[in-house]
Amino acid sequence: MRHFHNYISGVFTSSNSSETFANTNPADRDDCIGIFPDSNAIDINDAVHAATLAFNSWSKLPAPKRGDILRKAGDIFTRRKDELASIMTREMGKPIFETLGDIQEAIDTAYYAATETRRLFGYTTPSEMPNKMNMSFRMPIGVCGIITAWNFPIAVPSWKILPALACGNTVVFKPSEDSPHSAHIFAEILEEAGLPTGVFNVVYGKGLTGSLLVDHPDISVIGFTGSTATGTAIASKCGALNKKCSLEMGGKNAQIVMNDANMELALEGVLWGAFGTAGQRCTATSRLILHKDIYDDFINKLITKATSIRIGNGLHENTQMGPVINHKQLEKIQEYVRIGRAEGAICVLGGDIEDKNECAKGYFFKPTIFIDVLPNMRIFKEEIFGPVLSVTKADSLQHAIELANDCNYGLSSSLFTGSVDAAFQAIRDIQAGITYINAPTIGAEAHMPFGGIKGTGNGHREGGWTAFDIFTEWKTVYVDYSGSLQKAQIDNY
C-alpha cells in the first residue's frame, strides 16, 4: 500500500498527525490508491511558515520570470497529460475523455497565467495638481490558502494556484480528501518546473484541516471551491478575521429550450450538461425548462437517448458516464429521488443505483429524469450533485426565465433558440454569472471569467483576467515633484 506525504518547503514529509485516510477508486471499492495523512495544526503551521519565508524572495522576482516557471509547468502538464488523465479517472471516476479535458484546462491556465505576468497592468492618471503624478500598482497579498473540491482535481486548483503564483503570492493547498493524489502530481510538476522551495505547499486532510488553514493568522486570502454551506462558514470566519476570500460554490443550473430551437442540438446539449461527470459539476444542467409546445415530444426523445448512455469504469474506452464520488453521495442522490417521488414528480427514467456487472463494486447511479417538476419542489430548487434532471414546462420565454431565476443559486444558464431577440432578452434577464446560447450549461474556457451570483459566490470571478483581482491588492502612489507642499482634499477652487 502506497503512503503519501505532505509537501512542505520542497520536501515530501511525514505528517505530525497519526491519523490517516484511504483514497479509493469510486468505480471499484477494492482498489485503494493510497493512504494519506489527516493533517493537524502543526502541519498547517509548518506549511504556512514555509510559505511565509518564501514570500519575500518570490514576490520580488520579476513577474515575467515567475511566468517562465508557469510556462514550464504547462509544458510538463502537456508531457504527462495521458498519464495524469488515467490517475485522475482512477481517483475520482469520470471517463478518460473528461479527465484529458481537465488536464488541458490546467495547461491552458498555465500558459495564460504565464503571459499575464507581462500584463499585470496598473493605471496612471492625471493629478488634479501641477507637477504631480498619480499611479497605481497590483501588489501580491501574501500566503494564499487554497481549498478545492474533488470533481476537477487539477483544473480548478490551477484556476486559483497559478494566478496566485503569477501575482507573486505563495500557496498552501488543501485538496479534497476524495482527490488527494492529483495534488501530489501538482506538487511534482511545479517542483520540476523550478518553483523555489516553500512557494507551493500541499497539506492533506479532512474538514478540520481546512478549518485550521482558514483560521491561521498568517494566511492572507482564501480561495475556496465547494459546497455553499462550507463556503458560507468560511466567509463568516474570514469576515471576522478581516481576511479576503473568494468563494465558488453550488449551482442549480437551468437549460431553457424554446419551440424554435434546433431540437437535436438541444437534446445533445442537455444530455451532456446533465449527465457529463455523472452530474457532478457545479455547472451541471440539473433543470430543463421546456416550452409547452415541445414538452412531450422532447421528453420522449430525451428518454430514448438517455437510455443508451453507457455507464461503467471511466478507464474503459467506451464508457460515457462514470460513478459518483462515494457512498455518502450515492445515498444523498437516492434520498433526493425519494423526495422527488414523494413531492409528486414523475420519474420516467432511472431512479436507482446501477450495480450490474462491472458496476457492482462501485458507486454508480443510473441517469435519472423527473418530469412535471413544479417550482415549489425541492428537486427543482436544491443542488443534488448527481445524474438527476428535473424537467419543467414553460408557457413562454418570459415564463421560462422566471422559472430559471426562481432559485437561490446563480451560476450557469442556457437557452436554445433560433431567435436573436430571445437570446439577448435571456442574456439580459437571466440571473446567473454565465449564460450560454445554443450550448449546455457546462463548458467554461480558461481565459474567461467564471463564477456566479446569489448563493453561488461572493462576487469574485475565477478564470481569465478577473482571477488576478482575487490575488492582488491595489497600491496607489502619488509622486509630487513640485518642490512645494500641495494640499490635496482641500478646496483649491
Task: Write the SSE topology.
Blueprint: E1 6-8, E2 11-13, E3 20-25, E4 28-37, H1 41-60, H2 63-79, H3 81-92, H4 96-116, E5 123-126, E6 132-140, E7 143-147, H5 155-166, E8 170-174, H6 180-193, E9 200-202, H7 207-215, E10 221-225, H8 228-240, E11 244-248, E12 253-257, H9 263-275, E13 285-291, H10 295-307, H11 327-343, E14 346-349, E15 368-371, H12 378-381, E16 388-394, H13 397-405, E17 409-410, E18 412-416, H14 420-429, E19 434-437, E20 453-454, H15 467-470, E21 472-480
Parallel strand pairs: 7-8, 7-10, 8-9, 10-11, 12-13, 12-18, 13-16, 15-16, 18-19
Antiparallel strand pairs: 1-2, 3-4, 5-6, 6-21, 14-15, 17-20
Q: How would you concisely characterize the structure shown here?
A:
With 493 residues, the chain is of the alpha/beta class. The chain contains 15 helices and 21 strands. The protein folds into two domains: 265 residues, 3-Layer(aba) Sandwich (Aldehyde Dehydrogenase, Chain A, domain 1), CATH 3.40.605.10; 185 residues, 3-Layer(aba) Sandwich (Aldehyde Dehydrogenase, Chain A, domain 2), CATH 3.40.309.10.
Strand order of the largest sheet: 14-15-16-13-12-18-19
Any idea of the CATH topology of the largest domain?
Aldehyde Dehydrogenase, Chain A, domain 1
Classify the beta-strand content into a percent band: 15-25%
**What structural class is derived from the secondary structure elements?**
alpha/beta
Q: Total helix count?
A: 15
| Annotation, overall tally of beta strands | 21
Q: Assign a percent range to the helix content.
A: 25-40%
Shape: globular
Main β sheet profile: 7 strands, mixed
Corresponding CATH superfamily of the largest domain: Aldehyde Dehydrogenase, Chain A, domain 1
Q: What is the subunit arrangement here?
A: single chain
